[in-house]
Design brief:
Length: 108
């Protein structure tokens, strides 16, 4: 057995020599995958965030698409279907894509 957490920083992974076995190679691959997810740019107000898999919330509503909005000094997510504000645990570790806001039409 070996480590089962995949939160090793890139600076440590870069120092490691060749993996000694298949488990070590897989562990390093999982660490790199997690780093790729957590180092993405954070969603900004106006963006639409689309999860790879739908989430079911405590009210029974299932949703994949969320609008990123500014609420006072906080940035929150609102479900696209009904506008309800939600919290998504470990958001940066989840698979999602950002749909940027439409560009404003240019005035010529």
């Amino acid at each position: 057995m070996g480590p089962y957490n995949y939160d090793c920083p890139a600076s440590i992974l870069d120092l490691l020599g060749p993996p000694g076995n298949e488990y070590a190679a897989q562990w390093r691959q999982h660490c790199r995958q997690r780093l790729a997810l957590t180092t993405r740019r954070k969603p900004a107000p106006g963006d639409m965030l689309v999860l790879a898999e739908p989430l079911t919330f405590t009210d029974g509503q299932s949703e994949r698409s969320f609008r990123v909005v500014k609420s006072g000094r906080k940035t929150i997510l609102r479900r696209v279907s009904d506008g309800v504000g939600v919290k998504i645990s470990k958001l940066m570790s989840r698979a999602w894509t950002i749909v940027p806001p439409p560009a404003a039409p240019s005035t010529s």
